[in-house]
Amino acid sequence: MVPEPDNPVTVLGQCQVSPWPSPPAGKPRSLPLTFYDLAFWDVPPVQRLFFYDNTDLLGGPEFLLSELPLFEKSLAAALHHFYPLAGKLPCGMPEAAAPEIVFSDGDSVRLTVAVGDDNFEDLAGDHPRDTARLRALLPPLLRNGGGGSQCSQDVLAIQLTVFPLAGICIGTTLHHAVCDGSSYVHFMRTWAAIHRCGLLEHRGGKSMAVQAPPLFDRSVVQDNDGLREVFLSDHRAYAAAGDCDHTSGTTELATFRFTDRLLRWLGKQVESDTSARRCSPYALACGAMWAGIVRARGSSASFGFVTGCKPRASPPIPASYFGNCLGLCRVEEKMEAKQSCLEAVIASAAAIWRTIEGLAEQGRVFRDARGWVRLVREYASARAVTVAGSPKLGVYAAADLGPPWGRPRKVEIVSVERTGALALAESGRDGDGGIEVGLALPRGEMEAFRAFYAELLLVAAA
User: Fold this and answer.
1) How far apart are CA 310 and CA 377, in angstroms?
2) What is the pTM of this model?
3) What tens digit of pLDDT does each residue of 382-408 get?
4) In whole angstroms, what is the distance from residue 86 CA to residue 115 CA?
5) 343-389 pLDDT per residue, tens
6) Distances in Å between the alpha carbon of 69 and those of 72, 106, 107?
């Protein structure tokens, strides 16, 4: 294991990046949080890392001189389209009014630039790494205006960490009540496309079109059951109960890969041993991870996931809508740590798939919606297995910055160390196919999980 350096990063500077040009006067300056947003009010900020190779990168001063202005310019242009990300949220749940994202002219996103002294190759690997090393690459969300009702907090912060002769890491911290993974990836795709376009223009090439802008119109979200008021009431009742953080001791983050070949094999096992006629790759990968976590802990664990509600809402919500639009789903079965490796994976995957199939029923995802806030807290306190991200988001392709950076070699959701979620993405390896899953566990549980995963691979190869 690579030792942790005494000073993993040295901050070179910070700057405030405002949307440029400023959003038109007709654009709304405040966005009320919908019930979809309020479901994630208490969830820890979502923190992602994007690692980019570039062995020609000399060091911090060179980056500040040649590359930082391009990143600042492209970020400002992306924030022109996604200006609420430069806005503010109240620090706590207001006693009377509902929380809103408020953008004022001159608001900005804090951009930190640092030089890393850690091992870039090791940090971007799949093997278990102490999450403390990765946290050094992530910026906090600052609070403004003192305490009480006057306190507001940033909703997005970004850090660029330079690793000389190795590459860079882009770290983002996002308040989950602002938007879900789909809207976040929409922003990152726009920023990356503008960055590629800017580089081409800077070098005399042909510019590229930017994806369609986000939709901020809150009237497209129908709340006929009064869920917003229910969630506001729940949050105020829970205000003194503390946060959902359950991190303790040394936590490690590792990536586990499910290739197309492995997923096809697992699918055949589920189809032959259960009544399922098929089982999605998502259910198979999540089922294997769930079974392994149960084995590592030596005790049962609940499983929950989220599903996109834009096409499920009535009427459907446009794909470009910016905000949260996820429904919470509970798998009723609890997995016990008594079955063989393969039997446990089959049972877990089949249970998840049955729940996914049930969502085909009109309105099924909203049937238990009044309990979503309570469910989030229940799952956090019980260390339930949940899911962050999705292979469908295409985060690797979305974050392609063009030469000399290209696609990230690795994307991590480090905040799963606080939420206990599985971090799902499409495989970032060219030609590998399949799904990669990030998992954060205490060191002892991680060793047990890795043994389970190795056993599964041996069974599949037999």
Assistant:
1) 24
2) 0.95
3) 999 999 999 999 999 999 999 999 999
4) 25
5) 999 999 999 999 999 999 999 999 999 999 999 999 999 999 999 99
6) 5, 19, 19
- Assess contact for 59 and 245: CB atoms under 8 A: no
Phi, psi of 176 (to 5 degrees): -65, -25
DSSP string computed for 338-361: TS-HHHHHHHHHHHHHHHHHHTTS
Question: Tokens at residue 89, please?
Answer: 């949220």
Long-range Cβ contacts of 136-139 (<8 Å, 24+ apart): 136/8, 136/9, 137/8, 137/9, 137/49, 137/161, 137/169, 137/171, 138/47, 138/49, 138/171, 138/172, 138/173, 138/414, 139/110, 139/112, 139/171, 139/172, 139/173
261: left (phi over 0), alpha (psi -120 to 50) or beta: alpha
Asked whether the CA dihedral 372, 376, 379, 381 is positive or negative, the reply is negative
- In DSSP terms, which residues pair with 13 in a beta bridge? 113
Q: Do residues 313 and 216 make contact, with C-beta atoms less than 8 angstroms apart?
A: no
**For residue 177, what is the DSSP state?**
T
pLDDT digit string, tens, across residues 288-309: 999 999 999 999 999 999 999 9
> Residue 210 contacts by C-beta under 8 Å, 6 or more apart in sequence?
81, 190, 193, 194, 197
Residue 417 has a CB neighbour count (10 Å cut-off) of: 26
